[in-house]
Task: structure prediction
Amino acid sequence: MTLDSKIPPGPIDKKWEYAKAHYKLVNPANKRKYDVIVVGAGLAGAAAAASMAELGYNVHCFVYHDSPRRAHSIAAQGGINAAKNYQNDGDSIYRLFYDTVKGGDYRSRESNVYRLAELSVNIIDQAVAQGVPFAREYGGLLENRSFGGVQVSRTFYARGQTGQQLLLGAFQALERQIGLGRVKMYPRHEMLDVVLVDGQAKGIVTRNLVSGTITSYAADAVVLATGGYANVFYLSTNAKASNATAIWRAYRRGAYFANPCYTQIHPTCIPQSGDFQSKLTLMSESLRNDGRIWVPKVAGDARRPDQIPEAERDYYLERKYPSFGNLAPRDIASRGAKEVCDEGRGVGPGGRGVYLDFADAIKRLGRNVIEERYGNLFEMYADITAENPYEVPMRIYPAPHYTMGGLWVDYNLMSNIPGLYVGGEANFSDHGANRLGASALMQGLADGYFVLPVTIGDYLAGQLGKKVSADRPEFKQTQAEVEERIGKLVNAKGKRSVDSFHKALGNIMWERCGMARTAEGLKSAIADIRVLREQYWRDVRVLGTNEEPNQALEKAGRVADFFDLGELMCIDALQREESAGGHFRVEYQTAEGEAKRNDDDFLYVSAWQFKGDNAAPELHKEPLVYEEVKLATRSYK
Amino acid sequence: MDLTLQVWRQASRTADGKFVTYDAKGISPDASFLEMLDVVNEELTERGEQPIHFEHDCREGICGSCGMMINGVAHGPIGGTATCQLHMRHFKDGDNIRVEPWRARAFPIIKDLIVDRSPLDQIIQAGGYISVNTGSAIEANTLPIPKPVQEHAMDAAECIQCGACVAQCPNGAAQLFTSAKVSHLGLLPQGQPERYDRVIRMVEVMEEHFGSCTMYGECEAVCPKEISIDFIARMNRDYLAAKFKNRKEAGG
Result:
């Protein structure tokens, strides 16, 4: 099967217009005859569900939380990009497009990124109309700040809770449609499989997390907006329940998984403090606007930070990247931190940390300004570490945060399975090998509000009168497979807890498929994952039954999928013999230690096809064609 | 540090519940309260007992999933903090800690420390939004909003819908939660067209499920986002105004 990305013809700034003008439409009176399943209600899912319901479709929205407002989009702190050019600093749709392509290290699909930049301005309008309280200037107009990897101020924010406020906007739009009876909400339902009828996605199988009941639901199309998979590392900034099961089940049913090895390790997280640690906490990248990152010049310097004189500090990002300084993109800032810590210059327990220092900014702007900008982040830091960042520099260290990879989708956000759409972090399309800050919210909302509700009509128009019922054998078969799998986990009756296995997997992934990867390390990781997975199915301990609320069982299913996904990530990282963005192969670097891309051999999206449990997945390549942006070596110097 | 816990265990909505005593040994003061429970749960699993069920997700104090009564106080002894951000350094070695689910008639227990908070969503469904379909928004800077108004709206919008206000209230009232949303939207110019209609619809659904507010003020004291009780006064004022005004004239 060849991958058809369905990029519309014409110049880049007319492609979306062309596509919209040529999509088939569904008559307004016919829209209510269609049922659409949306799985997940983060930014992409809630926005898509609400917007499709507004258009008239019958939407069925499934979340494993008690309320759609809990999705992890809510934790995004720093902001959302939009090419409004309110600051008169030379911004434009083209520049946002260019920055995003460059930031992604030339591994994203140009046409999708351009559409994203175009839609960014509509998102801000929509959010403000919903009542999202973005920061404002004293004149009452919207305020912006800068983010990493760019030299304009285009980031809109709501204190340190931009994700929360944007999600509440989408959530409220969704709740309105629920109240109007246009969306039926299924809280505490976890999707455990997708059902294909004649090769098309026609429904899902879910587990009710209260009763344990396994049920099939049929629809005319299925949208997955189920987020990313950084929890494969166990310790990440993701919420505890964030998982890959929905997209992984779809992969096993034939959807291609694209670029699984592209993961983002975020530079500014609070370092790990002990084995009990259950997750890592991000400190917004916006802090790098005013905070300066440094370590002592000499390895093993054990003095307190305030006793290390200016001349004995190494502000390594400012030194290495004078034009971007502390606002270098995330992949570069993270590798920088790893490098100085590997040299023994790290600070804090275990030497895995660097300082993020606000002393200069407080001197220049006053404590009040810093408090207004970052107050809640400083409080959060103080809560967790018991240190006062107004007086002592923060200590930060990189942590898994976001996954650029995901299910392969075409320009219309449809996977290679007809009728199966994928939005937000769950798809792969816009961020290439590295995502810039404040772009995830933008992408989730662009997909949800403006892309999916339009593109899905093109497919649905051809499905009139082709409704299937959940009584069909395909549903019964899929449901039986789901039940069998649950049975295996409950009946393993082994000795080790799910968490202990997850930690072991996370450790393999972090050490060998994290910030620096080698062929040798990846090969040994694949072998070790296989051994561990075999032990898992034999020795995992899930107490209780399926027919009750059972959090260990929920986790067990997700971790089982993380084993398989972790293996695929390593396979993908191994085949990509180049360094690009967040994928850093030690063998492929410049003399200065920067990522060395290989455009001759690797200018493609790797899209993996599942071939069975005991067979190697098959690699399909979608060539990346750059017509607008000239391929160049990324430089932030 | 070593602690003794009395934890409410209840197998299902209809089962009888009881306190069960557990030892939590060798807990790091840097661990969060939930990480302490993780340690206890690993030990329970080892012993073949079902782990304590509790709701949690982001563990950054923003998703609103977590929440339990800790020694009778919603989210525990430290103000302005959700349970996931409560760290064990605020307890002493040898402490005895009682852990219970939210106790409110509107929040039936699902299992152990997990309760059903869905009536809060129903209040939002009744009117906790601005009716604007995707695509019909005006250009964002067309409508200037004074910074103090935006800041005030943001103070209300920070609510995480955890339900602590209800759990702590002797009446099981949801006024702080409802008023936060009424105020967030009612303060902003975009929220004016539906302002009076909204407050009536939300308050009516609130009253179907929750107790009455008699201004104990305990909600404000335990709110992890320190949402001010002033918003309740504001909601009451809008509600009264809505009842008296000709609603059509008020644009509702």
